[in-house]
Design goal:
By secondary structure, the protein is mainly α. 66% of the residues lie in helices and 0% in strands. It has 2 helices and no strands. It has helices spanning 2-14, 19-59. The radius of gyration is 31 Å and the shape is rod-shaped.
């Protein structure tokens, strides 16, 4: 009985079938750590820039939105195509 248990423990300790799973877990955790640290690093600046976007759009003349493209389809065409 103990011989069988010792053999199973020895087989368990020498088995490498779970090693690739552990490697994938470590790889995924490190990717998540890098992603979260980058979000923490640039997240505040991105929020500030997004908050400044409406005033920047007002400064360049898009306060009322973009011009309606369907109102005059020939407005931006060249008159002489040749």
């Amino acid at each position: 009985m103990f011989v069988n248990a010792r053999a199973r423990v020895a087989q368990f300790l020498t088995c490498e079938s779970g090693a690739s799973t552990i490697q994938w877990v470590i790889l995924t955790a490190s990717c998540m750590a890098i992603t979260l640290s980058m979000i923490a690093l640039i997240g505040g600046d991105a929020t500030d820039l997004a908050g400044e976007l409406p005033s920047s759009m007002d400064d360049i003349g898009y306060a009322d939105g973009f011009p309606d493209a369907t109102s005059d389809p020939d407005a931006n065409r060249d008159q002489d195509p040749g």
